[in-house]
Specification:
Radius of gyration: 22 Å
Strand content: 35-45%
Number of domains: 2
Strand order of the largest sheet: 7-8-9-11-10
């Protein structure tokens, strides 16, 4: 299964990362899974194949296909049909209903229960914090996680697991506003996460 990031462009310039998609090719069909944050801002997707043919996937009626360039020839009535993509499956990523994401500093770990304070001196956490200048605090229902920024590959996975950070969440799944020095746009960037005690319980 191939995975590609989805970027928003404006006037040919990359603006931001919106998420990623996974494509699985099978003999009789092609399955595309799209994972996007800020779904309220995204109204549809325009797909283009190698021959230049375009397909529109939209969930709002007002999203229309691109209009042809006008010329001096008399206008001719055209029949516009809704583009159809055979054997194309698009799944919307639905996040948990009660999730909190917060960008924090190492000093903010002092608000955790006292028994969790030792995590502030965790060697893996210190390495990620000094490289990307922040940490992630994540609440999902009754579960609380600390996320250390980093990239996903097997060597990093071994180190993360050794220090208790056993889960990896890609950047597209953790909607935080990051500065240029707080992320890596050229690698599989995200957060190595470790579950901790809920300070509210």
């Amino acid at each position: 299964m191939n995975q590609e990031y989805i970027y928003e462009y404006e006037n040919g310039r990359r603006i931001r990362n919106l998420g990623f998609l996974k494509m699985k090719k099978q003999p009789d069909k092609c399955t595309i899974e799209i994972y996007v944050r800020d779904m309220d801002e995204v109204k549809g997707f325009l797909l283009e194949d190698a021959s230049g043919r375009k397909y529109l996937a939209s969930w709002l009626e007002e999203v229309q296909p691109e209009q042809p360039v006008q010329n001096n020839e008399p206008e001719k009535p055209e029949r516009v049909e809704e583009p159809k993509v055979p054997d194309l499956e698009i799944e919307e990523y639905i996040k948990p209903s009660t999730t909190l994401y917060e960008k924090i500093q190492r000093k903010d770990l002092s608000r955790l229960p006292r028994k969790e304070w030792r995590i502030a001196n965790n060697s893996f956490l210190l390495h990620g914090f000094y490289n990307y200048h922040h940490l992630a605090y994540i609440e999902e229902d009754d579960e609380v996680w600390i996320g250390v920024p980093g990239i996903f590959h097997e060597k990093e996975k071994l180190a993360a697991n050794a220090f208790g950070f056993t889960h990896f969440r890609r950047c597209a799944d953790v909607p935080l506003e990051l500065a240029e020095n707080e992320k890596n746009m050229y690698e599989d960037f995200g957060y190595w996460c470790r579950q901790i005690s809920n300070p509210k319980v």
